Task: structure prediction
Amino acid sequence: MTIRKVLIANRGEIAVRIEKACARAGLQSVAVYAEPDRGGLHSRFADEAYPLGSTSLDKDLLGSSASARQAYLDATMLLRIARKNRVDAIHPGYGFFAEDPDFARQVIDARLAWIGPSPAALETVTAFNRSLAPEGARVDPARHIEIQLLGDSHGEVIVVGTRDGSVRHLGHALIAESPAPFLRAQVRRDLETAALAAVSALGVVVAGPLTAEFDLGEDGSFALTRLTPRLTVGHPCTEEAYNLDLVRAQLRIAAGEGLWLQGPLPAVTQAATVRVDAADHDLDLLEHRAAFIALPDTRLVRVDAGITQGQAVSDEFDTPLVKLTAAAETRFEALEALREAMLGVVID
Result:
């Protein structure tokens, strides 16, 4: 399928990330925004941007009391915007509709390309995840190790590489490192083999980035905890470590292209990503009313942001503000660069 114009059914930093990939691929990007995001970075960076909910397109589709988050979950409105503006494909990003088979089916039924796994694959992965061992039966204590996979629509799947997301809060990785450090070669190979076996056991084609998440014990024992059939928040460090644009890969795969790589890919650098939230994780405060004062020097690190300097943060959404990624020859140098970059982030 020929893709020329992509609607991003998301907001914030992941929407900007996808818009950048579209620009590099020579594709037009279409943003959507709820009222609190009017004038936000993702709506300004895209080639086109259209309001959601009760702003102007159709005040009757969403009641005036609908939250901004609900606006991004209005499938009818999203598809209407796509049809009206001659969109070829829809990218869900992560969160919202990223793992929703019903929305994926609606997109396909509207004769648009769905940039993600098929509805059948999404349903199958959900059932597979429910069959995995309950949390109490997993390895403990454990590191959280992820195997990044990439599949095409023809059934081919490769291992991209490894990622460590052991520093977590409320189920989310705050720091990710790629390749996963201090991982013995045999353990890495065992994890890669287990990841590929899990995907094979699904019995369906899973196109695009897919992450196999493991608990890894000190003795090398491990347990698969989840398959994630979408981009993950920690993907930037893997992109830097293995010199692979995962979003650009998604676009190529959605257009029907077969895999052009053989895995596992060799790491070209050591990379680390930190997620900066509008929350105090020590105190479990989840207030979202911080305002960004400053961002670090982008010559030092990669900055994936959905807000600009001085912009107020809406309390309608989750807490992530920005992700910083440093890459260097050694882990120490990457973490040191990340530490220096964090000094340039001021949140008030």
User: Anything to note?
Assistant: Residues 55-65 have pLDDT under 50 and may be disordered.
